[in-house]
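Appendix B, Record 12. Input sequence as logged:
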Amino acid sequence: MRVLKSQSVKTRPIWELLMKVGSIRCYVSSCRAVLLPRFGGPDVLELRTDVPVPDLKPNEVLVRSRAVSINPLDTRMRSGYGRSIFEPLLPLILGRDISGVVAAIGASVKSLTVGEEVFGALHPTAVRGTYTDYAILSEDELSPKPASVTHVEASAIPFAALTAWRALKSTARITEGQRLLVVGGGGAVGFAAIQLAVAAGCHVTTTCGNQSINRVMAAGAEQAVDYTAEDLEVGIRGKFDAVLDTIGVPETERIGISLLNRGGHYMTLQNIHGYT
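Logged structural output:
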């Protein structure tokens, strides 16, 4: 995952101030954005300076971007993933994660205020993403940004953490005392999964590269197997109630399924729409 930080620029858009009962909403009419006019490599992306900003719906929030991250889903969509869905909607604005400042709120938004620092993630099927100076998200897609993390750090959290959360809590429904294997614990989704599972009281084993072993152990993993130096089938001890495979290749799928307890859950990120 790569993180991009928005630079300070002089705003060129025309601002319109609208008064509502109990709230003030500010709309910016246009802004800079990175557009995807057609599928292909990174060279197809275009920076445009006058992209319209839609009016806010009652439950929506306009966020002034301070940092966004690049997820694997974004690069796959750029290359044509989901073509049958997205091609008729081109040009798209890619991007799911964002950290920034609330610039305006819809009439029914109650939990957030203008000027508040927030972070969050759009739904995977959103066609107006976060690679823009001003992104629009629904109120329930955003949370206040903790003061202890920077915008760059915050922008790398939401989509990966939601992926891990949905896999562990919505699909596997992990509970205290269960054993979880995370294949690829050094990546964003895997690292989030380790922390979520440990917080739920699970016993976590993970695979990762040598450079990540200390980090995943510090996050609470009880065993970390270096896939570059060890045979996973020999190094991994015991059976598991759930396996989260963030790599999703045939070999990790075979190993993961073979290590499941009867009735356990095997989850992979390979060829999956959405968060998991």
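The two ends are 16 Å apart (CA to CA).
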